[in-house]
Amino acid sequence: MTIIDKYDEFLELQARYPRSISNDFILPSDIKKRFGLGLISAYADDAALYMLERREGFYKLHFRLADASAEAPARDGTLAAYLIYHEGRYPAAAADWLVRQGVAAAHTLVRHTSGHIMGELSEEGIGTAPAEEVYAMFGEYFSAAEADMPDRAMFDGRDAYCARCADGRPLGILYDMGPTRLVAVSAGSRGQGIGRRLYLAYAAAKIRENKNQVFREWIGPDNRASIAMYRSLGFVPDNTITDCFIRGSQWTR
Predict the structure, then answer these.
(1) How far is residue 197's CA from residue 195's CA, in Å, rounded to a whole number?
(2) Going by C-beta distance under 8 Å and a sequence separation of 6 or more, which residues neighbour residue 81?
(3) Rounded to two decimals, what is the model's pTM?
(4) With 189 labelled, which of 48, 49, 140, 218 sits at a CA distance of 20 to 30 A?
């Protein structure tokens, strides 16, 4: 298997592999920058082209297969792959291949709202956090030494919601990355409803923008605490669409 460490080389290789079994149409928008920072690893052989994107606590797998008998590259820790559907078409070949790699479908929870989600929307006691605080809080979860922390610039604080104690120390942070929300609560403050408060503040801001906001969260099958929290907010399992596939026991969002 050939290791590819340059973006231009990766771009040239894509043309050699068909898109019939793939998910590479959801590559990160800053892919060239991430290659330069060493946050992306790519591999190619006769059967497939793979790209592993280091994210917050997991590796995100992108793939194009020339042969459905290909096997995903070995990687310790959590591996996640996402599939997107167009016009109701289910990408069966890609989903079947992921399942054969030992990757299980994650729980998908969805909540449609017209003005509120279940639970009292409140922003009381919730403020913002600068990039330094966000980076430090998530550093409790994700080890930079293991190269699964993003560069500091990704945590710019624009969408970070923060709950603080009386002396100003952050107790928990919710960071909105677009398709996913990352929530970190300090070790001594868990089980006190801080994650719920953070999510209600996030939801309130989204509803101000669009009163018909649809909330969708992808939660690992073993993340029972998060599943219970989202259910308490009125989320229900979406049994018709499976977008996220996960292999590994550590799933922290």
Answers:
(1) 5
(2) 23, 60, 61, 62, 63, 98, 103, 244, 245
(3) 0.64
(4) 218
Q: What are phi and psi of 203, to 5 degrees?
A: -65, -40
Integer Cα distance of 48 and 66 in angstroms: 5
The answer to whether 75 and 219 have CB atoms below 8 angstroms apart is no
**Which residues lie across from 96 on neighbouring strands?**
none
What is the C-alpha to C-alpha distance for residues 48 and 252, in angstroms, rounded to an integer? 29
| Structure tokens given for 101 | 């790699």
Tokens of 232: 């308490």
For residue 168, give both structure tokens: 């100003």
Residue 181 and residue 186: Cα distance in Å, rounded? 17
| 188: confidence class by pLDDT, cuts 50, 70, 90 | confident
- Domain boundaries defined on the chain: 2-102, 112-238
Average pLDDT of the residues in 8-34: 84
Give the pLDDT confidence of 74-85 residue by residue, as tens digits: 777 778 888 776
CA dihedral sign, ordered 153, 157, 162, 168: positive
> Which of 208, 209, 201 minimizes the C-alpha distance to 233?
201
Q: What does the CA dihedral 57, 217, 237, 22 come to, rounded to 10 degrees?
A: -70
CB burial readout 201-214, b (16+ within 10 A) else e: bbbbebbeeeeebe
Structure tokens at 52: 């592993």
Kind and range of the H or E run holding 203: helix 194-209
* Phi and psi, residue 141, nearest 5°: -100, -40
Please check the confidence at residue 252 and state whether its pLDDT lies above 50.
no
C-alpha span between 127 and 119 (Å, rounded): 20
Return the CA Rg of the chain: 19
